[in-house]
């Protein structure tokens, strides 16, 4: 089955700096790559996603890049703010709904 | 804004007891999922329903876990008997599935945190 590895497990940045989280996947059949943000005591919430026919996608301060050949994808957050502090999960899905998640990155943005 | 409802939010039980979790997905979402999230790890799929039918329960420990979605709306996940290793967050999610497309986005509830003593 699919295996997703996520790095780093913890990331601390100063407010205003950029943050990058990287994931690799193993199943070449995966074609959907979402990123979720989980705040303390809440369920994960989708923040951005990308499909395998696209190399990059942006939404304001958040961007995701995908390298299908290398089987890795990354989340980029620019101009970080304290409210960006949370746990971020990447996932890979070879079919509708069957998302395999990474183990998460705890992002801390220091004011 | 429509949300996935879960209850209870917290459950403390002793090992060998039975526990049950309930989930009400977003109205109109045909696909419902139960995930288990162990502290410090990502969610792991336990079971997926399409309407009232089980699509995938390959990771569900069927000797002690059961799940049902009788009318294709709300769902119940049961553990009997509970073991110490079952302590985790149990997340329910739903998605809108259009035939022939891969929408993918999961809408999660706030979860049910289980502690087994």
Put the structure in a nutshell:
The complex is a heterodimer of chains A (about 110) and B (about 120). Chain A is mostly beta strands and about 110 residues long. Chain A has strands at about 5, 10-15, 20-25, 30-40, 45-50, 55-60, 60-65, 70-75, 85-90, 100, 105-110.
Structural overview:
The complex is a heterodimer of chains A (about 110) and B (about 120). Chain A has about 110 residues and is an all-beta fold. Chain A has no helices and 11 strands. In chain A, strands 2, 4, 5, 9, 10 and 11 form a 6-stranded mixed beta sheet that branches. With about 120 residues, chain B is mainly beta. Chain B is about 0% helix and about 45% strand. Chain B is built from no helices and 11 strands. In chain B, a hairpin with a 2-residue loop joins strand 5 (about 45-50) and strand 6. Chain B is globular. The interface of A and B includes residues 41, 46, 97, 98 and 100 of A.
Q: How far do the termini of chain B sit from each other?
A: 36 Å
Helix proportion range of chain B: under 10%
Structural class of chain A: mainly beta
Q: Radius of gyration of chain B from the CA trace?
A: 14 Å
How much β-strand is present in the residues of chain A? over 45%
Helix/strand order of chain B: EEEEEEEEEEE
Compute the separation of the termini of chain A in Å. Answer: 41 Å
Beta strand count of chain A = 11
Low-confidence stretches of chain A: none
Instruction: Give the oligomeric state.
Output: heterodimer
The major sheet of chain B is characterized as:
7 strands, mixed
Report the mean per-residue pLDDT of chain A as an integer.
Answer: 93
Rg of chain A (CA only): 13 Å
Put simply, the count of helices of chain A is 0
Q: Quick one: biggest sheet of chain A? A: 6 strands, mixed
Strand content of chain B: over 45%
**Which regions of chain B have little confidence, pLDDT < 50, spanning 5+ residues?**
none
Structural class of chain B: mainly beta
Q: What is the average of the pLDDT values of chain B? A: 91
Count of runs of 4 or more consecutive helical residues of chain B: 0
Overall outline of chain B: globular
């Amino acid at each position: 089955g699919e295996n997703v590895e996520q790095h780093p497990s913890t990331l601390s940045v100063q407010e205003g700096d950029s943050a990058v989280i990287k994931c690799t996947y193993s199943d070449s059949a995966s074609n959907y790559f979402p990123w979720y943000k989980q705040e303390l005591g809440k369920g994960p919430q989708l923040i951005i996603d990308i499909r395998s026919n696209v190399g990059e996608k942006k939404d304001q301060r958040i961007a995701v890049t995908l390298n299908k050949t290398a089987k890795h994808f990354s989340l980029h957050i620019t101009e970080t703010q304290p409210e960006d502090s949370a746990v971020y999960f990447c996932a890979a899905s070879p079919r509708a709904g069957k998302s395999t998640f990474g183990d998460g990155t705890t992002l801390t943005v220091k004011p | 804004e429509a949300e996935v409802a879960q209850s209870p939010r917290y459950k403390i039980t002793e090992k060998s007891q039975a526990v049950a979790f309930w989930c009400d997905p977003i109205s109109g979402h045909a696909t419902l999922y139960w995930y288990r999230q162990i502290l410090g790890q990502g969610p792991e799929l336990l079971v997926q329903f399409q309407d009232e039918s089980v699509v995938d329960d390959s990771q569900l420990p069927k000797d002690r876990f059961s799940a049902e979605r009788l009318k294709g709306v709300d769902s119940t996940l049961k553990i009997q008997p509970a073991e110490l290793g079952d302590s985790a967050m149990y997340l329910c999610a739903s998605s809108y599935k259009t035939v022939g497309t891969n929408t993918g986005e999961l809408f999660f509830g706030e979860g049910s945190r289980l502690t087994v003593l």
